[in-house]
Amino acid sequence: MSLTNETHTPSLRSWVESANVCNADFPIQNLPFGRYRFVGSDEGFKIGVAIGDQILDLHGAGLIDSHDMNALMALDAGERLHLRRAISQGLAHGSSKQQAWSKLVTPQCESEMAVPCQIGDYTDFYTGIHHATSVGKLFRPDLPLMPNYKWVPIGYHGRASSIRVSGQTFRRPQGQTKAPDAAQPSFGSSRRVDYELELGYFVGRGNELGQPVSIEGAEDHFFGVTLLNDWSARDIQAWEYQPLGPFLSKNFASTISPWLVTTEALAPFRAPFVRPDCDPQPLPYLDSEFNRKAGVLDITLEVLVQTQRMAESGIAPERLTLGGARTAAYWTAAQLIAHHTVNGCNLQSGDLLGSGTLSGPVQNEAGSLLELTEGGKKPIRLTSGEQRTFLEDGDTLILRGWCERPGATRIGLGEARGTVLPHEV
Asked: Residue 355's Cα: distance from chain center in Å?
């Protein structure tokens, strides 16, 4: 893990003027990676870096020798740092690269974005302790958290093939549900489609089968972060999840933001990992000096909704919640990597680890409608006059994230946007 260096200097400016706008998501201090091509083009996707409202073609700039994002992600820490410095120097105000590189930038508004890398496997964890507690209270008032929750990172293997980039639309899922007073289940469209506010942690360098990654070395295998919406069908989930966990209620769609914000860019926004004295401390294989000192990512997270009526009336998306990952996640990304591999499991470049729903301790920081509406019992009222317990057809849900701290330049994660469509084609 690289600490801050000259690429994070707050006074650094770019010759791409949109990168110098106050509170821009993609200043020169960020430099996230993504895959893009011109809208309407049938050419292959290229690897680019977001800079302001533009994208720099890294291959055209001679900074990489292929369009394989997974190979780039597998570089070791030193090679990644060298690449970041080269990109930063070339995009900096007064750079000798400006004339050549100015021909290699494309407006983001003219670009089609792809999932940023090949995702081979996807594991969704359950690190949001406030979410786990709130949901637990709905179903087990006397035992909200299972006895293992504070000892072991809980997770399940999800479906990588249905992960799409921001802008995803999907049909309302179908499956079995069972009402509490029904004699048998019925089949049909889910009536309780929900969102889950998560962060996606991407694996950079993999590990060999049978060779665990230590907590001390886990940061070297952690490439970067995206926003992640792990859409959920709560009524299907309630009937199917015992005894093996979620299945059809989760695998129909997941939406991620298109930019991989690297651990190098996040260096100024690290925070200590601290457990309450009354909670069990992590077992030794999940504990390290660096993780205690700087294992936490201090990321602000926002959820907005825009109904179909709002969109048709020109009403902007409305904020549902605003919170942060710093106080929401019970386990760090490094701990998830160490735990995932401790049994010898081999992670590969591009594997995605979901944080689980990141809710804060109060209701206006909830990371799902399940929590906001207390299981559908208390509908929320929107400024349009509409009410919601769960998402309806035509609703667009938007996740946004950013980091800001005194003495550092604000950086953003972009957004993850998705829309629920009727089941009927």
From this structure: 8
Task: Give residue 102's pLDDT band: very low, low, confident or very high (50, 70, 90).
Answer: very high
**Residue 359 CB partners (closer than 8 Å, separation 6+):** 128, 130, 131, 134, 197, 323, 328, 365, 366, 367, 368, 371
Query: What is the distance between the alpha carbons of residues 172 and 252, in angstroms, rounded to a whole number?
Result: 9
DSSP string, 46-65: EEEEEETTEEEETTTTTS-S
pTM: 0.97
**Cα angle vertex 160, ends 159, 163, to 5°?**
105
pLDDT in tens, 321-367: 999 999 999 999 999 999 999 999 999 999 999 999 999 999 999 99
Residue 210 burial (CB count, 10 A): 10
Architecture of the domain made up of 6-114: Roll (2.30)
- Please tell me the number of Cα atoms within 13 Å of 55 on its side-chain side: 23
- Rounded Cα gap, residues 336 and 157, in angstroms: 13
Can you tell me whether residue 302 is helix, strand or coil?
strand
In the chain, where the domains are located: 6-114, 122-421
Residue 154's CB is within 10 A of a number of other CB atoms, namely 18
Query: Could you give the residue numbers annotated as active site?
Result: 131
The Cα–Cα gap between 206 and 62 comes to 26
Question: Which helix (H) or strand (E) element contains residue 226?
Answer: strand 222-229
**Hey, how many other C-beta atoms are within 10 angstroms of the C-beta on 386?**
17
Coil/strand/helix, residue 164: strand
**pLDDT tens digits for range 53-69:** 999 999 999 999 999 99
- The fold for domain 122-421 equals Fumarylacetoacetate hydrolase; domain 2 (3.90.850)
Distance CA 177, CA 189 (A): 9
